[in-house]
Fold these 2 entries.
Entry 1:
Amino acid sequence: MSARRSRAAPAIAVLALVALSATPGCAGLVRYSDDISRSGAGRSRLVTTPATIGGVTGFLVGVPMSVAALPVTWLVNRIEKERAPLRADPLSVYLFPSFLMWRAGAIAIGAPFDLLEFAAWRAWAGPIPPTEREQEEHELELDRDLLPAYPVRPIYPSPDREPAAATGSTSTEEPGLPGR
């Protein structure tokens, strides 16, 4: 029996390594745990409520782990203060196990509900179209971010000026621009 167990251990380790290499990384997992916990991310309460409960439970389970890891996190915090004193955040270092368990709890409890909702509804329904206000805000954000990068002057009239047809003018010239 022990020979069988000793042969199975490397296979389990390899499978665990393959499974971990298939994950999207920390940033993707954190973003996903945020998405399934927030109601504004296009998920229903069927997903967000269990994910939030899992996150809170995970955080509470992680508090004793944070206390047990205090010697290690204290050392990490000291090293962070020496390397970058302005960027050192003791709260995120000392409560790292709690934050980790918070994310793990949200994913462990919320992901099955998210998969169920995706298979039953979101995969079949198209994306929710943005409202006029959301579309306008998005376009203004794109204008603000992208247009200053181009050294051009817009040729359309500004919103605070009346169009030439309404003022009775037939000139196509804008003030300060030479005619063509």
Entry 2:
Amino acid sequence: MKANRLIKLAAAAVLLLVLFIAAYFSLSNSDVNLSITLPERGSSFEASSDEFSGNISNNEPDKYEHLESTELTRENVKSVISTLYRCPSYTMKADVRRMLNGEERFSKVIHTVSGGRSKTEITSGDLTEHILCRDGLLYRWTDGDTVANMYTQGSFDSDDAAQIPTYETVLSVEDEYITDASFKELGDSMYVFVEYKIQEFNYTECYYLSTDNGLLMAAETYDGDELIYSMKVTEVTPTPPEESVFTYPTGE
């Protein structure tokens, strides 16, 4: 029963992250829920999206040397994934496509993590939403806003802010639902590919995990034969960002 609940939660994490965020914000009235005045646009607190190195190496070339002699199977893929180490500081860009109520939606994500803090920018059409998590508080605003909403962070973490799944989801899946696993080499990098079924929803999840930096680099969700969610990381910089990225929305 516990495993089934975990599987259901995994599906919800992939398909309903946007709804989760909306519910989090709408139900936060019992917590800290304040508004703060924003400085003018162009202040130093805004994260730059113009320059990314594109480097996906974590500068530890021998970290996953043991994987070269490992035969990846459905039976051992979770053990292999559990050895992956997610780099503690990074900036990533991702393209996300999802189907919601029969409507196709696209968004671009810039997600920066370092020292227990995260800054996320999600652009859908002409609208860019900013989410800053630090010091137990969450700040949320969109371009053009003159105030930012502030909430207690609670269990809402940086992965939730980015609205993309993580490889930890796979570790909660029962072995019998894993249908495929292999190493895939794309360009100069090696990935752990894993596919698993969510029987209750007739969903198939496909993940590509980087052995260079421990990050989930691509994900797909199929409802039968229909692709209803896809995420692809386009650039990663696995180094500490400028401190100005995590400046409070007030510019302080």
